Amino acid sequence: MEIILAKSAGFCFGVKRATQMAFDASQQFASIHSLGPLIHSPQVVEKLEQHGVRVCHQVAEIPAGAVIIRSHGVTAGDLREIDEQKLDVIDATCPFVKKAQDYAAQLSADGYLLVLVGESDHPEVEGILSYAGGEVRVVASPVEAMDLPRGRKIGVVAQTTQSLENLQEIVAVCLSKTKELRVFNTICDATTVRQNEARKIAAEVDLMIVIGGFNSANTSRLATLCQEQQARTHHIETADQLLPEWFHDVHRVGVTAGASTPSWIIEEVLAKLESLPE
Ligand code: SF4
Hints:
The chain is of the alpha/beta class.
C-alpha cells in the first residue's frame, strides 16, 4: 500500500513555537500554568502536565509562579490581571495573531468601526477584540455583514484561520456600505496551505486519514474537506484508532494532520499503516 503524507501535516509555526516555549519553561520554573490547554491535542497537554505544566482557566486560579500564554493569545484584561498578580509571563502568542491584535488597536484608535471577520466565541477573536478601544462588530459571513451600518468608515481584520474567500466576500459587502474602507489581511497561510494540500491528496487516494485532536477545530475542518473529496476519510487522534478492516482494496492512502498534531503521533500512525497486512 502506497502512503502519501502531506508535507504540511502537523504543527504550524505558531504551535511549534508555543509548545517548544512551554517545554523550555518547564525546565526553568518550579510552578507553571497554561491559561487554557496549550494546544488542541490531549496527548501534548498530557505530556506537558507530566513536565509540570498545569492547565488553568482563569488568571485568579494561579497562585504564583509562571503563566504561559497560548498561540492564539489572551485578552488585554487577562494580561492586566497577570501583571497585577506579578506572575512571570511566557508569551507564546503567535506573531501573526499579535499582528491582528495590533491592527485592531490601530484601526480603533483611528476611529474606524472595527469589523473582525471570525467566530465570536473563539478565544483568538475574544483576544483581538479586547485590544480594540472603539466600536467593534464580529462578522462570520457575508450575510451577517449585510447588517453593518452605512456611512461609517470601516476597518477590517480577520481571525487568522479564516478562508480568503470569506474575507473577500465580506469585504465586498463592506465596500457597499462605506466610502472609506481599510483592510488588513491577517489570515495566516498555514491553514490554507494545509487545507489545499489535504484536498488534493484526498482526491487522489482510495482512503484518507486525518490525524488530530477531536477538540481541534482546524483538524475537524480538514476532515470535512477531505470527506468532500473522498468518502473514505477517517479522523483519528492516535495510531491505535486505525482499524485494519478500513483498508480492504486500498492501494493508496493519504495522511494529513491538523496544526496541533505533534510529529510523534504522525510517526506512530505511519508505522502502524506500514505494518498493516498487504
Ligand atoms: S495557524 Fe498561523 S496564526 Fe495560528 S498559530 Fe499557526 S502559524 Fe500562528
